[in-house]
Amino acid sequence: MNYQYRVGGSLAYNHPTYIERNADRELLTALKNGQFCYVFNCRQMGKSSLRVRVTHILQQLGMDCASVDITSLGSNDNLSQWYNGVITRLFLGFNLTGKINLKSWLREREDLPPVQRLGQFIEEILLVYCRGEKIYIFIDEIDKILSLQFSLDDFFSLIRYCYNQRAENAQYERITFALFGVATPADLIREKTQTSFNIGQAIELTGFNLAEIAPLAAGLSSQSNYQPDWLEKVIFWTGGQPFLTQKICQLLLETNLDIETLIKERIINNWESHDEPVHLRTIADRLLRNQDKAGRLLGIYQQILEKGAILCDDSPEQGELRLSGLVVKKDNQLVVYNPIYREIFNLNWVEKQLEQLRPYSEAIAAWQQSNYTDESRLLRGKALNNALDWSQGKSLSNLDYQFLTASQNLDKREAEISLETQRQANKILAIAHQKATKRIKIGSVILIASLLGSFLAFIQVKQAWQQVETAQLGIQLQRQGDSYWQQFQFEQLESLMAAMQAVNSLKNIVTDDQTLGKYPATSPIITLQQILDRIQEKNQLQGHQGTIYSVSISPDRQKIATASQDGTVKIWNQKGENIQTLTGHQGAVYSVSFSPDGQKIATASEDKTAKIWNLQGQNLVTYPDHQESVYSVSFSPDGQKIVTTSRDKTARLWNLSGETLQVFKGHKRSIDAASFSPDGQKIATASRDGTIKIWDLSGKIILSLGQDNIETFYSVNFSPDGQKIAGAAADKTAKIWDLQGNLRATFQGHQDFVNSVNFSPDGKFIITASSDGSAKIWGMQGEEITTLRGHQESVFTAVFSQDGKQVVTGSSDETAKIWQLNNLNQAQADNTSVSINSQGNIIAIANKDGQITLLDSQGKKIREFATKMRSIYSIAFHPDSNQIAITGRNGKVQIWSQKGTMLQEFTASQVPIYSLAFNGEGTAIITGTSEGKVQYWHLSNYRPQLINSWTADDNIIYDLVFSPDLQKIATAARGKIKIWDLQGNLLKEIKTDSFPVYGVSFSPDGEKIAAISRDGTARRWDRDGNLRSEFKIEEDIVYGITFSPDGQEIVIIARDGQKHRWPLETEYNYLQKLLDRGCLWLEDYLRNRPEKREALSPCTGKIKPFTF
Fold first, then answer.
1. Burial 1028-1040 (b: 16+ CB within 10 A, else e)
2. What are the start and end residues of each WD repeat (predicted)?
3. Residue 530's domain spans which residues?
4. What is the pLDDT of residues 463-482, one digit of tens each?
5. Which of 820, 854, 869 represents a domain boundary (last residue)?
6. Can you tell me the distance from the alpha carbon of 2 to that of 685, in angstroms, rounded to the nearest whole number?
7. Predicted confidence (pLDDT) per residue in 334-359, tens digit
8. Is residue 877 within 8 Å of 884, Cβ to Cβ?
9. Do 610 and 513 reside in the same domain of the chain?
10. 652 and 576 inside one domain
11. pLDDT at 561 over 60
12. Secondary structure of 659-686 in HEC code, one letter for each residue
């Protein structure tokens, strides 16, 4: 028997087992047409064999071809050596020996940048000495560049350059590139602002089908036990995977086993020992090589095994899973590639790998085996904290998140149980006390004396026991407070409830006259305070059985519609109750939109239709003309038309009667989204062909937008004024253009695809939703304002309410979330100074460009104006709040009216001034410089007069302030606060720590001093410098500290203008205020969740359920 199947490695062009596929024809046609091509797929799919075959055919046609295998270049070369290696292999591949002296040629150009050297080689050597009509350069194993220490972005730029040169130099029409490897285009280019792949053609290399492998029967038919259905069974087991197909055919030649027995004995059973040449281990290694991502990949694969298939969302994780070869895309779903893989990489294998990754693998496995009921398997204390630390920065499976959350909830409950145990013990002791008292009364005086001594001893023991119990509970609560703050980063509402329970437990073991410094734990209070100051998640909409792709808020803000993979649209009221469900689509619903009058809803579905409904759930109109899934639907501003987009590469304009008014053709791939301009005269479309197009209503393209590095746009929207266009892209960015096609801003910060982008109603912000599990709000210059985290999977949609105060997001975790927005008026990174007026109701924020923004106590913008100063370092209110003083790098002081008129300017220093403050009468200003000098100025209408100056420190004076009696000045520097009289005499020095002190303040009665350091530690001293309290807030940068006007609170001001309050007296009452704030925030969330409402003891009886 001479017939041999080839198992592993490249097949020769004339090998009898080479199977021609559709990719052969596509690649050959594209290359003949001069297209740059790339064939990216998992290993052992036949990429190299395809390259060998196509190379031979082109050479037979008289073309010049050469291949460069990246693995042959070495991974230890420097950049210059790598490019010289490419040149050398092209020199040898095109058989140019004897035509030039390559060593001399390279030596003469060694001073050129390496990429220019390769460019000259192409132009001066290849285009001159290669005489074929076309020149083809094949780059194999291109993914190997990912392991190099240097960037090869310029290499891809050169490929693009060769393509673009065709317009100026016809010789470049001759040269064409083709890349082969295991990668995605996004993987290969480090600098995401450039790529070559939008000019290229992707060649899809699929597995074999039964008709294609018919020639393989030639080798099998000579077997004595040959059966005609062998190839059909081979295809069943391999799914057409080329390597496995060849291997099983070869094994059939070598054995007399039937196919099922052969596959089980020679492939599946003890697969590690049979895996030669290596194939299955390559798949496993690809899945597990990155420990930070392996958990997420295994989690996705686990879902596929359990459900049979999951929807393909083109996320990077799914892309990585597909590149492993383990799964394949079929009918827009991911399925296991074949039964062999399913048998080997089964659920037991997945669990085993997860066990090796997780530090808590045994615990989570036992918890899962108990059907999630055995709470003894959950983590507590240090083990829980270690697990939470380990989870940071990792993409975990849903099971991991559920396990960690359940562990945190148990930790909280155990604290409550411990507290209840203490209460019962106290009751027992009280009863014992009563009995002892009764017996004492019966005895004699001597006995009374004796028993009294015993009783006193008993009381002492009891008190000691209680102290121990309180201390133990305090330690537990302290630990819980820290863990709930970590939980807040990804579960806002859940961490709020947990922190409230902890504070309630603390409240039950302290007395109303106990000071904060004597509390057994403070972290739950600090955590609850910080959560309430920062929380944005207001409610969760739960009820869908699949991904939520789209949300829409009614114009009156009273209803929310969600569209889901489960084929339904649900309508919710603002309290979070499902008031209507629309059923009628026969597939996933990808888009939903309220009409401008709020009386109708439009939907778009996988079933190739769009529909219009009334609010009672009646289908009014169906639009059936698309040939593929309908991805989006939008109403025109007047509500008389809708526009739909589809996978069939078209958009359609319709009237409300179901008639097609216009078909928009021009995109080369599916269109994911469309948006009307505010005047209703233009439509913008976003497509997976990497372009955004703007059309008039007649179907004419007005403008086409795109960038070289962007292969897909998922979303597009006009700004409210109609002058800008925002697009969301697969390159992890969003972008804004003007209507002339000029790129105005790029929004970078997401770690995965950006799935949607929408403007705020005032046009001053945009919101993006990403597959990285977050939504972000941005200013119009590309600055990130805030990030909304809480979804556990990809976020597909995020929209503003009409008043801009709320956002609703939808995710593949099957929930929609309602978020309450806080101050959005400034980009934190640009803010340089913040101040609050003496009444505590106005905040002034200065940014690096000299812009002043005034906010009210709710964070609403009052006014904004530009000053004539750049790099403002300090800003201060006049006591009457009508004037504002600023200073900064240029050493000048400017005084402005609150309306934005400059009233006065003078030069106070030749060096930068970092701080300034008015006195309580507004008649004087003090300034602190970068060299530690304090200057005391008297203000007049004409020229400020310098009254006194002295050196207060050898470094920057970060803040200074007058005392309320105007007789003292406090200065803040690195690690210290100093108190001075007005003549510059040092009265007192208070040391803090090694950090700069960014803010200092006197209490209104002058009896207390507060300060905040750069690390977020706030401290309070009495007038004699004795430390009375200390606490820390988790804030990136704080810019100031002050007392409330009544002196009862310390107010810390963060860079974004947020205020964080801390009580000075009656801490016990303050705990109740915090709990009341929490209950008020949770009101909507708890109304229709009775089990959580009853479990949250601080809110028991305060929130009434929904009534119908």
1. ebebbbebeebbb
2. 541-573, 582-623, 623-657, 664-698, 706-740, 747-788, 788-829, 865-897, 906-941, 990-1022
3. 398-535
4. 444 555 555 566 677 777 77
5. 820
6. 59
7. 999 999 999 999 988 888 887 777 77
8. yes
9. no
10. yes
11. yes
12. CEEEEEECCCCCEEEEEECCCCCEEEEE
